[in-house]
Amino acid sequence: MKINKVVLIGTGTVGATYAYALLNQAITDELILIDVDSEKAKAEAMDLNDGMYYADHPTQIRHGDFNDCKDADIICITAGVSQTKNATRLDFAEKNTEIFKSIIDNVMQTGFDGIFVIASNPVDIMTYVTWKFSGLPKGRIIGTGTMLDTSRYCHLIGEYFDVNVKDVNGYVIGEHGDSQVACLSSTTIGSRPILEKLDTNDDMKQKDFKDITDRVRDAAPSIISRKGATFYGIGIGLAKLTRAILRDENAILPVSAYLNGEYGHNDLYIGVPSVIGRKGILQVIDIELDNAEKVKLDKSVQIIKENLNMLKLQND
Ligand code: NAD
Q1: What is the distance in A from the centroid of ligand 1 to the CA of 223?
Q2: Cβ of 170 less than 6 Å from ligand 1
Q3: pLDDT tens digits, residue range 164-194?
């Protein structure tokens, strides 16, 4: 039987939470932890192994180094500088690009030929950076995009209408950041559009919806100001993305995917619903947007492109 191998680079709060979710959900057979602080990676492996007796699947977990990357199925990068109270995700771009350059050069020297999963911020930029530095096909680089924002959105919509979050079908797309776009026009509950429930003449309901999208957009600073970091939501989201790849689920997830004409844009990675399977991103789903959503998405694209230009990474 094929042994699935995941290498995690960056064992900070996000990385450690992801590792814990992988173990708890029995998603991979082998998990290797790498961090510039190798003692931290070693300690996380020891701590996770301490729970193995109670886990449903005997995952082989140890700390490692870049030599472990050659035959990995997935390399997940959560390394980098973490978000602070007053900085936006885009502020990290330059510093994390430097860190990614050295990580990806080291990984590619081993002959790695699998899939990169990226969570480090600004995630849309870091996903593009990984594609550029690795030279791998576009569909084998997947950023977590708006997975976390979409989960927050569906949770709040479910809570508002008092239905199970799993019965809300809707997406937040665009930048994983302030210019994200909640797609109200295509959100459904039990196959019925929520627009039917949100009477456009009802100012109260309109205001409630705005409050929900504001809370989704501002969730990260609001958590970070209280506990210093966000990690459970992204940790479980990363585990879901990993499972979709390793189990060839063809699951539709709002990841940071390369646009090649979809939504009228090219040459950037941005959060859009995409089909995810064993070979990576199989298809970008071009969902229908109303005019206001389209204008917001164009603005989001512009913001990401300005940052890519600043880093001098685009193909022009
Ligand atoms: P953290 O500071 O706790 O952990 C970062 C880890 O990266 C540290 O352990 C550090 O030693 C390691 N690291 C730094 N440089 C390295 C290198 N060159 N090689 C290997 N390891 C290196 O930060 P965190 O809270 O775990 O966040 C990690 C990243 O995830 C940040 O960029 C953060 O903004 C991002 N994040 C993304 C989402 C999302 O939805 N995509 C959500 C939350 C956090």
Answers
A1: 16
A2: no
A3: 999 999 999 999 999 999 999 999 999 999 8
Nearest CA to ligand 1 atom 4: 12
| Atom 39, ligand 1: residue with shortest CA distance | 119
User: Which atom belonging to ligand 1 lies closest to the Cα atom of 147?
Assistant: 40
Whether the CB of 15 sits within 6 Å of ligand 1: yes
Give pLDDT tens digits for 80-90.
Answer: 986 565 666 56
215's CB contacts (< 8 A; 6+ apart) are 152, 156, 222
Q: What is the DSSP string of 2-36?
A: PPPEEEEE--SHHHHHHHHHHHHTT--SEEEEE-S
- In DSSP notation, 175-234 reads -SSTT-EE-GGG-EETTEEGGGTS-TT-HHHHHHHHHHHHHHHTHHHHHHHHHS---HHH
Residue-range domain boundaries for the chain: 5-143, 147-310
- How far separated are the first and last CA of the chain, in Å rounded? 45
134 lines ligand 1 (CB under 6 A): no
CATH top-level class of 147-310:
alpha beta
CATH of domain 5-143: 3.40.50.720
Atom from ligand 1 closest to the CA of residue 148: 40
